[in-house]
């Protein structure tokens, strides 16, 4: 698919994000059986499910794609079903909910809790550590790709390139600690039952309706100060992230395979703001200064296995700047990427 110079509508945005690459179609063609996505109702889940459905259709594979969530927004469920994704409404923490779900040989686990963790730590641990243990036991006979986060790493110097998958975790704050708990539960049950698992440590997926780039661009456009406390970041287009998540079913192993998932560059927040300033004809306002260390990841393994992201940084910046300029709809969910103490 040729990338458009601009994205003008949500329908166009959804189409761009859910158009499968040839590599994904080839990968999904070998998928042995149905796919169930747990926690499909979040920011990434709906486009991931539709991407999987379109890839399987292009591969001419009659496999079910099943999305499970609470579906607090009924519109999400309607859109998924219209796209050919089967849906099941369930609160996975409720007794008996997991047992009632259909078996499937392929599982993608997206359910998580981040924002609102501070002040409600028990629920955060239940979602991020207890529930993964239940899922890992329930789907012990499946292949599981589980979403984790680069927050399990410590802050590291920007000039160092970021931690790779062999770097020891050292999470900052209870949210990140609970995410490491999630990983440990999948690792434990993988070793106990021989379940093949991939753990995806994702850093900052970008959609035009939310994400680090939107946060920065919006502040530049509205004249708000851009906080430089977290002076460097990694980002990746959500469509590329979803593609990698689905392709990671092929890499599941026991003990679990770990994959950092983000873009190849370490980006300066100051420079991003200046670039948006040029696009939006605004002079950025800054507050604070860059700390020597930031939350970063080295995605070399991802690049070696799957090649570079299809959407480069420059195109993402163009798209986000235009989206902000035309007043495109947003989710109003700031990433809080500048947080350094792990309190979300």
Describe this structure in words.
- By secondary structure, the chain is α/β, with parallel strands linked by helices.
- The protein has a domain at 10-205 and 238-262 and 295-304: Rossmann fold (3-Layer(aba) Sandwich), CATH 3.40.50.
- Helices cover 40% and strands 15% of the residues.
- It is built from 12 helices and 15 strands.
- It has helices spanning 10-17, 22-29, 45-58, 74-82, 97-100, 121-138, 173-193, 212-222, 238-247, 269-280, 300-306, 313-326, and strands at residues 35-38, 65-69, 86-89, 106-109, 143-149, 156-157, 197-202, 205-206, 225-227, 232-233, 236-237, 257-261, 267-268, 285-287, 293-294.
- It has a 7-stranded parallel sheet with strand order 3-2-1-4-5-7-12, sandwiched between helices. The protein has a two-stranded antiparallel sheet with strand order 6-15. Strands 8-11 form a two-stranded parallel sheet.
- Helix 3 links the parallel strand 1 (35-38) and strand 2 (65-69).
- Helix 2 (22-29) runs parallel beside helix 9 (238-247) and helix 3 crosses helix 9.
- The radius of gyration is 19 Å and the shape is globular.
- The two termini are 37 Å apart.
Q: Which geometry do the CA atoms define?
A: globular
Which architecture of the domain at 10-205 and 238-262 and 295-304 per CATH? 3-Layer(aba) Sandwich
- CATH-assigned fold name of the domain at 10-205 and 238-262 and 295-304: Rossmann fold
The chain-level structural class is alpha/beta
Order of helices and strands: HHEHEHEHEHEEHEEHEEEHEEHEEHH
- Spatial strand order of the main sheet: 3-2-1-4-5-7-12
Low-confidence stretches: none
Largest sheet: 7 strands, parallel
* Secondary structure: number of strands: 15
| Overall pLDDT score | 95
CATH level 4 superfamily of the domain at 10-205 and 238-262 and 295-304: NAD(P)-binding Rossmann-like Domain
CATH top level of the domain at 10-205 and 238-262 and 295-304 is Alpha Beta
Rg for CA atoms: 19 Å
Query: Approximately how much beta-strand content do the residues carry?
Result: 15-25%
Number of alpha- plus pi-helical segments: 12
Our measurement of the CA-to-CA distance between the termini, rounded to an integer number of angstroms, reads: 37 Å
Helical percentage: 25-40%
